[in-house]
Amino acid sequence: MTNPTFPLVHDANHIRQVHLPDGMKAAEAIKIADEHFNRIGMRCWRWEFSLSAEPQTAQQMAGELNCAAGIAKPRMSCCCGNRIFL
After folding, report:
1. Which residues, 6 or more positions from 40, have their beta carbon under 8 angstroms from its beta carbon?
2. How far apart are CA 71 and CA 51, in angstroms?
3. Which one, of 27, 6, 17, 1, lies nearest residue 52 by Cα?
4. What whole-number distance in Å separates Cα of residue 81 and Cα of residue 2?
5. Which residues, listed in sequence order, are joined to residue 83 by a DSSP beta bridge?
């Protein structure tokens, strides 16, 4: 979901219903998403996992996102159902 009118609004610029296909690594999904958001000059602020996604997948993705940012503070949140991983 992107909205260039509101580039700093997290609810307007995020990825919903994330469910990684079998065999896809978190780093690959992050690369694809980063390329998409960079191409349109936007930033993805949040990843929302599908309720059918495994919570451990969301937790691994959160770790990858934070490593990709190269900073100790999370660059975004990941949520799976009622659990949020920073």
Report:
1. 2, 4
2. 28
3. 17
4. 22
5. 80
Other beta carbons less than 10 A from residue 68's beta carbon: 14
What pLDDT, on the 0 to 100 scale, is given for residue 35?
Answer: 92
Whether residue 85 contacts residue 58, with contact meaning beta carbons closer than 8 Å, is answered with yes
Taking CA atoms, 35 is separated from 28, 40, 42, 43, 81, in Å, by: 11, 9, 10, 10, 26
What are 27-61's pLDDT values in tens digits? 888 889 889 998 998 888 888 877 777 777 777 77
Other Cβ atoms less than 10 A from the Cβ of 46: the count is 17
d(CA 45, CA 9): 8
Task: Please answer whether residues 86 and 62 qualify as being in contact, where contact means their C-beta atoms are separated by less than 8 angstroms.
Answer: yes
- Apex 56 CA angle, 63 and 8, nearest 5: 50
CA 78 to chain centre: 6
